[in-house]
Every structure is written in structure tokens, then in C-alpha cells.
Amino acid sequence: MMLIALRKTMDNRQQYIKNQSEKAKIKNGFNVGSVNILFGEEPHFNVDSFVQNKLSKIPEDLLNCVNKIIFGGFYLDGSYVGKSVNDIIFLSNKTDEDSLFSDLIHELAHAYIRKNYEKVFGDGRLQKEFLSKRNKLYHKMRSTGVPLLPHPFYENPRFDDKFDKYLDKSIGYDTLSQLISGIFPTCYSVTSLEEYFCVGLDSVFSGREKILEDCPVLMEKVSI
Q1: With the C-alpha atoms ordered 88, 49, 47, 8, is the resulting torsion angle positive or negative?
Q2: Which residues are 85's β-sheet partners?
Q3: Cβ atoms within 10 A of the Cβ of 223, count?
Q4: Do residue 157 and residue 175 come from a single domain?
Q5: Which of 65, 82, 115 is the last residue of a domain?
Q6: CA atoms in the 13 A half-sphere facing the CB of 71
Q7: Contact assessment for residue 35 and residue 63, using Cβ atoms and an 8 Å cutoff
Q8: In whole angstroms, what is the distance from residue 166 CA to residue 149 CA?
Q9: Strand, helix or coil at 155?
Q10: What element of type H or E holds 201?
């Protein structure tokens, strides 16, 4: 009976979103719960398909971490595009539906952290798992002879611009993707503890949770 009720609730929510989007005629946007969905320009994707097949699958606890989601037509510096700023997510709509959804989940993950920091990181377990993987990567890098930054860089869980550029430019993601095999789920998840969580959440909602098999604490934390 509970499963039937849950399905009915989801069906009702999907129908509500569909009705709202049709009523809004795209340009004016619509609300999903307390979140305002806005379009700054004519969308380059199928809105009806996106809201029914993607947006309606996002749990309310995650979606409600922001006040607005704006697609396209930005009157801001380009650095804001694809970012969550002041509880507003700005996304380019000039991409395919799956990539757009992945970008949205990733930015919602950052917003979720701001609202639920203690829940995600408070017990220290995720940081412990992350730094253990960083240490494994360091020793693997050292054994293969790639250029290394001093070990303290690997012990810092926060984002560091120098470390980020080192991974991207000095090592390169082609080489890094081989080095992280069996350690990190993706190259970008190496960047910082926060990105480790965001990549994990995106992986689950994008149907790629298999890449988290070697990350038990991360898998637990992104089960929201």
C-alpha cells in the first residue's frame, strides 16, 4: 500500500510540473514547490521532457536547497554560469538534456552542503575516506615517476587552486584517469572533499553509481 501511495504521489507531482510548465508558456517560468524555475531565453532543450523525466525525480530536500533555477539569458559575469550563487543556480541551456541534468545536480549538491554541512561532514568519516584515497594516489604517483607536489597538498581536503591546476595541467586528466583507477570515481573528485561529495551525488542521479563501489562512505552520504 505504501508503494502504491508513493507512486501516486510521484505521478501527481509529475502531472503538476507538466501543467505548470504548460501554463507558464516557457518564458514566465513556473514553480516546483518553493523553487522558481525561470528561462532567460528560449530553451534549447525539450522542457516538457526535462521536467517530467529529470526534474521531477529530484527529492524535495535536495531541490529546496535553492530558491531559483535560471536557464539561459544571463545578465551576469560569465563565471556565474553553471554556478550556485546566493541560493540561485544559473545554467546554460545550450547543452543536451543529460549534461544539463548532471550540471544541475552538481550545483544542487553544493547548495545541499551549505544547508547540511554537519550532516555531510560532521562525523569526519567522509573526510577520512577522502584523505585516505588522496594518500593512496600520492604513493601511486610517486611509484610511477610523475611530477609531485609536496605531500601536505594531498592532506588538504579543501579546494586549492594550485593543486587543481597541477592535476589539470601538470598531470593532465588523461594520465590522471589511469592513476585514479580503483581509488577515486572521477578525476574531478580528487580536487577537494566538497567536489568528492558533489561528484558522488551526481553519479547516483545520473545512473552511474557503480563508479562509487570503492567509496562506501561516499555512497552512504549521497543516499539522500
Answers
A1: negative
A2: 88
A3: 10
A4: yes
A5: 115
A6: 27
A7: yes
A8: 8
A9: coil
A10: helix 193-205
User: β-strand 88-91 against 68-71: which pairing, if any?
Assistant: parallel
* pLDDT of 5: 43
Number of domains the chain is built from:
2
**How far is Cα 67 from Cα 87, in angstroms, rounded to an integer?**
6
Q: Which secondary-structure segment (H or E) carries 204? A: helix 193-205
Tell me the whole-structure pTM to 2 decimals: 0.82
* Concatenated DSSP letters of 118-172: HHHHTTSHHHHHHHHHHHHHHHHHHHHT-----GGGTT--S--HHHHHIIIIII-
- Each residue's pLDDT expressed in tens, for the chain with a length of 224 residues: 433 443 444 456 556 545 544 444 445 677 887 888 888 777 777 887 888 888 888 999 999 999 988 887 655 444 544 455 668 888 877 778 888 899 899 999 999 999 999 999 999 999 999 999 999 999 999 999 899 999 999 999 999 999 999 999 999 999 999 999 999 999 999 999 999 999 999 999 999 999 999 999 999 999 98
| Residues 6+ positions from 115 with CB-CB distance below 8 Å | 65
Indicate if 62 and 142 belong to the same structural domain. no
Range of the domain at 92: 2-115
Q: Which of 60, 83, 115 is the last residue before a domain boundary?
A: 115
Query: Grid coordinates representing 32?
Result: 516546483
The alpha carbon of 149 is separated from its chain's Cα centroid by a whole number of angstroms, namely 27
Whether residues 18 and 93 fall in one domain: yes
Angle at 6 between CA 37 and CA 87, to 5 degrees: 25
Cell numbers found for residue 50 = 526535462
Are 168 and 152 part of one and the same domain?
Answer: yes
